[in-house]
Amino acid sequence: MRAFSLPRTAVAASRSRFDLLVFESMWYDAPAVGPLRCKDGVIVPSKSGLRLDNLTALACWASLACGGCAISGASKAALPVQHTVVREQLVVHSDFPIPANHRLLEELTARRRDLQQLLGLPMSDEPIHVYLFDSPVRFDEFVRLDHPGFPRRRAFFLETDTRLQVYAQWGDRVAEDLRHEVTHGYLHSVVPNLPLWLDEGLAEYCEVPRGHRGLVWAHLELLLDRINHSGWRPDLPRLERIDPARDMTQEDYAEAWAWVHFLLESGPEPRAIVREYLGELRRDGTAKPVSARLRERWDRPDEALMAHLGTLAAETRAVGK
Ligand SMILES: [Zn+2]
Residue 95: how many CB atoms within 10 A of its CB? Predict the structure, then answer.
């Protein structure tokens, strides 16, 4: 069992995940185990393996602050910087050449416009630095030296007051990983104080290829299984109350995705609700929760989401999935 230490001084110096750092990772596939707990943090299984909780993220911040890192230019490990491709907001660093018009970069830049149109958000010109390692070995070495104590991972997003960064390794799942992590970058470059559930729900929605309407089969299957076998019901206020210092479970990620899919894909009215919410959050830094807005329109928003999942299930059966 893994153990992670979290310096108390780092906790004391940190007020929230947005004060200093936002850390999110796509983890390696991991054996089916329960939450792995250590003294100060917990790692929970996620759809694709493990995700690091925010307390452990603060430990990561501590390692950055105390030990130097890529952010300050004092990385202990060699970062991939031989080649740089700039595509709009993305600054992609690698040690192997990537064609400027590579189809993955085309998709990532197109996703920026998708988000702008879908959510009614402006485009930022703040760079998002994407470091692409050419192998898992080099990526693991970087993590081991610069972020000791981290669990194994495939990619992660890192935000500081001055930089937005994605670290990832080239491989069979790099497209999925980058679609997810770069979405965090696009969102964080224009919206402050994004709630955890909406941040992750939107990233999950965007991690499938364009043209798939954000449909994540694994999340749908998980929720349908929970509905059929354990009487699961959606509860957005519960998601909104999740303490940023606590991680989301696999079911939380699936529910966050489901609410986002409902908001964006079930009609113009729900989409207008999330657009208005994000607009106010961007303008004022705070906004009335999405759940309260939904209750002004539906007596039972949870029933509306259940109906949406039922429609998706029927469509799924119709196409033989
Ligand atoms: Zn994420």
Answer: 17
Whole-angstrom CA distances from 259 to 14, 255, 266 are: 30, 6, 10
Instruction: Report CA(27)–ligand 1 centroid distance (Å).
Output: 10
Give me the average pLDDT of each 10-residue run along the chain (321 residues): 25 27 44 28 32 42 34 66 96 94 95 95 96 93 83 85 95 95 97 95 96 95 96 97 86 98 96 98 97 96 97 82 59
Distance 37 CA to ligand 1 centre (A): 21
Amino acid at 125: D
184 Cα to the center of ligand 1, angstroms? 7
Cα–ligand 1 centroid distance for 60 (angstroms): 16
318 CA → ligand 1 middle, Å: 30
Ligand 1 centroid to Cα of residue 196, in Å, is 9
DSSP string, 128-162: EEEEEESSHHHHHHHHHHHSTTPPP-SEEEEE-SS
Residue 199 CA to ligand 1 centre (angstroms): 7
Query: What digits encode the pLDDT tens for the residues 263-309?
Result: 999 999 999 999 999 999 999 999 999 999 999 999 999 999 999 99
* pTM metric for this prediction: 0.79
Cα separation, 59 vs 285, whole angstroms: 26
Residues whose CB is under 5 A from ligand 1 (ion)?
24, 200, 203
